Amino acid sequence: MTVRGWSVELVKCGAVPPVVIRELRRDLALCLAHPVWISDQSIGIDVAFSPERQQYAADVLLRGLLDPVPHEGLRRIGIVSEDLFLSVFTHVFGNAQFNGQVAVASTYRLTPSYSDQPPDPQCLRLRLLKEVMHELGHTLGLVHCKVPWCVMSPSLDPDHVDLKDPAFCAICADRIDVPQDRIFSFLK
Amino acid sequence: MSGRMPRLMIVDDERHVRESLAHWFTEDGYDVVTAASGQEALDTIGRWDVDVIVSDIKMPGMDGLELQNRIHEKNPQAAIILVTAYASVATAVQALKEGAYDYMVKPFDPEQLSQVVARAYEKVHLTTENTTLKQRLAAAEPPFVVGTSREMGQVMELVDMVSPTETSVLIRGESGTGKELIARLIHLRGTRPYGPVVAVNCGALSESLLESELFGHEKGAFTGASNRRKGKIELADGGTLFLDEIGEVTPKVQVELLRALEERKITRLGGTQEIPVNFRLVCATNRDLEEAIREGEFREDLYFRINVFSISIPPLRERAEDIAPIADHFLRRFATAMGRQVTGFSEDARELIDNYEWPGNVRELANAIERALVVCRGDQLTAEHLPIQLHDDETESLGGNYSMAVLEGRHIEKVLRLHGFNVTHAAKALGIDRVTLYNKMRKYGIERP
């Protein structure tokens, strides 16, 4: 069944440079053809900090994003520049409520310098776009996709993220009502 | 299992762990169920066919190791990955010894956990597929051409008895009775059905060719040996070696064969290296091997080596009830293969087939029907379509009496039978008048049935 009539709200979590979120909004709007805006509210991340692990708990941030609960049809996505974890995992790039309304994505491990690569703002921009599209897909009920270039294919390290396109395959796109022509115009 | 999503169970007394892992693997495309205790997991497994189980070791009540043992009793194919927050080599070793697929320490590297679960699922999937294939092979029906008579039922009982063992089998029977089919069935139902079946007709090759065929040769071993070649025994490694017409093997090759069977090693012709071989031996013969031993033509030690278990296939003439169904089987098979619309046998053809002795057994019957189908233009096979040898089998059954009178009597009786003892039609077919035919019937004591 196709999920229709949704929109995206980006929320700055902690000290993320505003330019990162502005570029992300523009890229997402091009890719998705659904309304995307930036929340004028930002949320603090200190509550999610774990002194023991020196990381931020992704599930705590998700709970913060649910306050207040977004209206039906809205997908609220928090962007954070710190390292995220779940108690059972050493780290995560992001986390989403499956078939839910909130998600969070981190730039921390996507930054080229994290993998000892030279700084590259465009690389980070593209990686973040893909990671946010991926988590958004989960909130819209998409599971991991076997099409290797599809943004819903699983990626467990930044190199895998680079191998994907910032686009949904035809089957995933159809399920979440993303027009194919919009994807192709972006890719051109 | 194919056609559905992989099923994963998360067992952990900590709710956030269950939820996080369930969430993670749901996104990964798994059908996930969670359980808060070992007992809850066992209850769920009773109702739900699980492929992979990720279970905590330290839980109140039943711990992960006990749960693993209980799960193996209920669902031995499920792969279990045990996890703990407290790394301990001793626990890891114990878990793996008791059959866990893997052991992981919390918190997990997401990439590593995903890979371990994916590999575990793949293993379960392959195991299930393997089991299904083995069951299919085990249930493989005997080839229909062996027949359904009581005699063949006894043969099949022997096949069932000996197949699951590694015992060498000697199949006896006349030419064309289906000895190779039985050998292949023994292989299929044996312990190495995925290995090769390598058949060698020992009677069709000269001594030197058979030697080379069985043992292989090195380059330059003899004139014409331009390359190294593996022998049939070597090729049968891991499978079954079927030696047909074993009674025709010359004494020299018998010695070499005996050595290979006893030592399970061969040396290629012209070579020095001993090559270990592991195969099951099935032999067949239509020769009286005991007589051959008495005459000094067959080695007694080789005989005992190959004749651990013996199966005799009766000739077709001794199981007449098999003839009609086997004939029908071949008619359907060849008609389909040739794209012919032949639906059955005429009465005369059926009678001819039933009354013939089939000295060439099933093979002759198959050939006769195939040939008849080639010449048949209608929708039924008639007596005329059957090979001439079928009509002309008197020489086989005259019992040494070749006088014209005996031959004439037999011929008249056969033609009468073909025409349902209609004297007018039979006389016409014989090219004589009815009176002459009646006189000859009286002379040869032929009466209507």
Provide a descriptive summary of the structure in words.
The complex is a heterodimer of chains A (188) and B (449). Chain A has one domain: Collagenase (Catalytic Domain), CATH 3.40.390. Chain A has helices at 18-32, 58-65, 121-139, 158-163, 170-176, 180-187; strands spanning 7-13, 36-43, 49-50, 55-57, 74-80, 84-86, 89-92, 94-96, 102-106. With 188 residues, chain A is an alpha/beta fold. Chain B is of the alpha/beta class. Chain B folds into four domains: 7-136, Rossmann fold; 144-314, P-loop containing nucleotide triphosphate hydrolases (Rossmann fold, 3-Layer(aba) Sandwich), CATH 3.40.50.300; 316-379, Helicase, Ruva Protein, domain 3 (Orthogonal Bundle), CATH 1.10.8.60; 393-449, Orthogonal Bundle (Arc Repressor Mutant, subunit A). The longest helix of chain B has 29 residues, at 110-138. Helix content of chain B is 48%, strand content 14%. At the A-B interface, strand 7 of A face helix 1 and helix 5 of B.
Q: Give a quick account of the main beta sheet of chain B: strands, pairing sense, barrel closure.
A: 5 strands, parallel
Which spans of chain B of ≥5 residues are poorly predicted at pLDDT below 50? none
Cα-atom radius of gyration of chain A: 15 Å
Radius of gyration of chain B: 33 Å
What gap, in angstroms, lies between the N and C termini of chain B?
Answer: 63 Å
Distance between the termini of chain A: 29 Å
> Using DSSP, what is the number of strands of chain B?
16
Show unreliable segments of chain A. 181-188
Strand content of chain B is 5-15%
User: CATH first level of chain A: which class?
Assistant: Alpha Beta
What is the fourth-level CATH superfamily of chain A?
Collagenase (Catalytic Domain)
Number of domains of chain A: 1
What's the helix count of chain A? 6
Helix coverage percent of chain B: 40-55%
CATH fold name of chain A? Collagenase (Catalytic Domain)
